[in-house]
Design brief:
This protein is an alpha/beta fold. The chain is built from 14 helices and 13 strands. The chain has a 7-stranded mixed sheet with strand order 1-3-5-2-6-7-8, sandwiched between helices. A 3-stranded mixed sheet has the order 4-10-9, covered by helices on one side. It has a 3-stranded antiparallel sheet with strand order 12-11-13. β9 and β10 form a beta hairpin. α1 runs parallel beside α8. The longest helix has 27 residues. The two termini are 27 Å apart.
Amino acid sequence: MPCSRTGYRNLSRTSSVSALKTGLVGLPNVGKSSLFNALVGDFQAQAANYPFCTIDPNVGTVSLPDVRLDALAELSGSKKIIPTLLQFVDIAGLIAGSSKGEGLGNKFLANVRECDVIVHLVRAFEDDRVTHVSNTINPLDDIAVIDLELLLADLQQVDNALSRVRKGKIDPFYKSALTSLKTALDDGTKARHVNLSREELESIQHLGLLTLKPVLYAINTSESDLANGNSMVAGVQAMAEADGAQAVVVSAAFESELGVMDVEERELFLADLGLKPHDTGLVKLVQGVYKLLKLQSYFTTGVQETRAWTVTDGTMAPQAAGKIHTDFEKHFIKADVINWKTLIDVGGFGPAREKGLIRLEGKEYPVQDGDVIVFKTSA
């Protein structure tokens, strides 16, 4: 589908699109559904001011904002732009006791387990009209509640797995991983901070451990505090840095206002604030998730379409070609490669070839973020 040339836009509210899945979690009434609605660009998710207004998870697919796509499409005169997709899941508010089933907790935690990355939304604004589940606005305490529930759920998973291990033969890497995790979780250490080998990590992937997943903290603040933050924002940022996590500042209310504007109105509104479409909190949130998953994009471009293809860091050229079609990987011969900015600056493939700027790469070439590639195959 075409992507708006003015920043991210929603593509659909569906679970049928193949995309990386991001779980949006937090306590009730921190602004999750409002943020989700702003992300996907419509207002079907309930955003009521009471706990558990979201029971079944809302699912929406958004495109990754990327100015490089726009530039390449303009250069090629492309009829359409196909961006990278990320899937966001609005998971009902977790509460203390969720790991024991409180507040439909078991169901909600199962939804988180299916996600690739967690966006943890925390409230960093005062508003008497919006109730707080504990009647106190303290984002660090809120984070501690959610973290504890995720850790306790993981501990239960590991305990159950260990009980099965003791009953028969088992992969030694699996057993050693479980033993290390049990010790760490008992001490309150998250699974992602446990030093496991590659083999050990692979052996426990099926467990879907919640504290093993990468986390991005989305700090929901008021529009007036977006530019300079406040003491609550600063506290979460410091905590995230100490935890090796990422944090972005957003205003769900502000982004919701932007979501109902048409493109021209939104551009003018942002310009009055000294912002560009790619500078909003939601754009930074989507881009942050992409980076957190250690993903990168390469591009194909032509008259019919300009498209972003998602690969993990270190992906070799044949495997990157396989993203387009499996036959491309099987019959890979070579790849013509040029950086997107170089291609733009020189004015296209013709001038780039004349100047010798297009590189010929083989099977051992690790694709780089921003590469524009033409694959050559024997098929």
